[in-house]
Queue: 2 jobs
Job 1
Amino acid sequence: MDSEKILNKGRRVLASSVITRNYQITMPRRVRALFRFEEGDLVLFVVEDGKLIIEKG
């Protein structure tokens, strides 16, 4: 996704990724850089108010 998509309540889509046949995703470069994810970092999948949140562990 080249530009951010603005959603309701001030939320933004920074990027997107597709789930592979093996249920894997690639974290987009923009997201890795913005949140300083590096190889070996723990990624948490958190449910909050019925929404999925991805956090650095």
Job 2
Amino acid sequence: MQGKKQHTEKLFTSFKISDRVPRQNLYRILKEKLDLKFLYPATTTYYGKRRAGQYRPRCIL
């Protein structure tokens, strides 16, 4: 079974992490430009039925 983690903003004292990451950050740009949704169905056969030791496809890349 593949794990999908829902991202929710985490608040630290008085700011959000996403507010501190610059708009021109490489990972922010990649997230906007790349559609990686195809990875989940494409990698289904490589995952076991148990959750132990499994990583999300995007984390592997």
